[in-house]
Amino acid sequence: MKDSEKLNPTLVNPTTQQRPSHSHSAKIMLWLILAVSLTYFIYTLKLVSTSSNCNHGPFSINHHSSSINAANSTTISSSKRTELRHVVFGIAASSKLWEQRKNYIKLWYNEKKMRGIVWMDDNVKTNPNEGLPPVKISTDTSNFPYTNKQGHRSAIRISRIVSETLRLGLKDVRWFVMGDDDTVFVTNNLIRVLNKYDHKQFYYIGSLSESHLQNIYFSYGMAYGGGGFAISYGLAKALVKMQDRCIHRYPGLYGSDDRMQACMAELGVPLTKEIGFHQYDVYGNLFGLLAAHPVTPLVSLHHLDVVEPIFPNATRVEALQRLTIPMKLDSAGLIQQSICYDKEKRWTISVSWGFAVQIFRGIFSPREIEMPSRTFLNWYRRADYTAYAFNTRPVTRHPCQKPFVFYLSKAKFNSTIQQTVSEYEKHRVPHPECRWKMANPSALDKVVVYKKPDPHLWDRAPRRNCCRVMKSNKKGRMVINVGICKDGEVSEP
User: Which residue spans traverse the membrane (predicted)?
Assistant: First the structure.
């Protein structure tokens, strides 16, 4: 017998010989598996628990801490809002025009609340009782090259006003605001605009010319100095270090504002556009522009010597003095347009609060009424509608569609009803004969507008106020209420 064929005692009776050994091994294996499983389970629980504590805990704490810090940050920022005392005005002036132009500055400057310097080319007579900013003579700029044959060297000294004002070392300054001596600022609205931005960052804030050709010739990225512009303190510090070198590189530029923009370009700072700064590079009557002001705070008016007085039968200064009355009552709402309808009479009504009310026969869409009518000429004294950097509409020639205009005559605050009450009297000019068989606005002599002051108007998303025609018991008088649009209220023709 071969060894392979020899009987193995363990294989003689497999049923009786293997069962005890297999059963014992199975028990050992089972306990081993249970032990390993239990160990793995405990380890997994510990790992998950540790992971949860490590990963989620700090995020939760940091999130809570961030919320607290954000809340504190909001509180701090709101308690440190920019105020007029944080602004320094740099006013570019000419000694030859000072006696005339200083009257514009008197309209808006308050020596008790504001700081400013009038930078002059030569000495002028000053009177400390006039309440004007102090006058300083600009530094000599004869060492700077100037080669533009159409311009004037004064552009160089004016372009350095921000730097020269910074070098005075005034304390607690956040913004330098540049303007001309024929610029009128609505200072409360200026502060509303500046509070949108961080003065520690680099900001160059202003707006363009109304003239498309001016913007093409100079720049669509330039703030026009007459309309005014604002330079943050952080940017002014950077500018003062390089501006003189920058000016030397641009002898061929025309004005001060394009030199400023050239230096902004070297600093890599773009223009932040705020269209409430108004250069007004136009001639004639500003009525169309003011009666359809864009939905943004009115910050400045310029070229007031070039255009007609904004109110009829008044001098330029007298007209602006009248505008300061509603400006003090509700600066946020000044010259803001509202559009509504008297559907019974089929009239369209446009209210430019604090300035004028227009009543049109017929129904015009808001899309049309919110466009300025061309009551003015462009900077080249032409009636060319393609010359503007915004949409305009023609002055109507239809005898029945000429608007009836009512100009502000007076305004006051009624403490009983907590509203402003402004009155607008009809501008008495001849109207062409109209054969339409409909109610005639010529029967009206006065429009009375009620409006609650709304200092937080620009803290919300931009939107025109709504106006509503109210019942009037007096003949020849229309009563209108202006205010925040109610839920679902629209200017629907």
Answer: 28-45
Architecture of the domain whose range is 329-483: Distorted Sandwich (2.70)
**How many residues are present in the chain?**
493
- 117 in Cβ contact with 134 (< 8 Å): yes
Quote the Cα angle for 176-178-184, to 5°. 120
Per residue in 257-288, pLDDT (tens digit) is: 999 999 999 999 999 999 999 999 999 999 99
Please name every residue paired with 120 in a beta bridge, in sequence order, or none if there are none.
137
What's the sign of the alpha-carbon dihedral 260, 261, 266, 272? positive
Q: Tokens for 163?
A: 């730097």
How wide is the angle at C-alpha 282 spanned by C-alphas 281 and 288, nearest 5°?
Answer: 120
Residue from 317, 323, 321, 311 nearest 286 by CA: 311
Domain ranges of the chain: 84-279, 329-483
pLDDT at 294: 97
pTM above the 0.85 mark? Answer: no
- What lies within 8 Å, CB to CB, of 82 at 6+ separation is 174, 175, 191, 194, 195, 199
Determine the CATH number of domain 84-279. 3.90.550.50
Nearest-angstrom CA–CA distance, 27 and 190: 88
User: Stretch 38-43: mean pLDDT, rounded?
Assistant: 58
SS3 234: helix
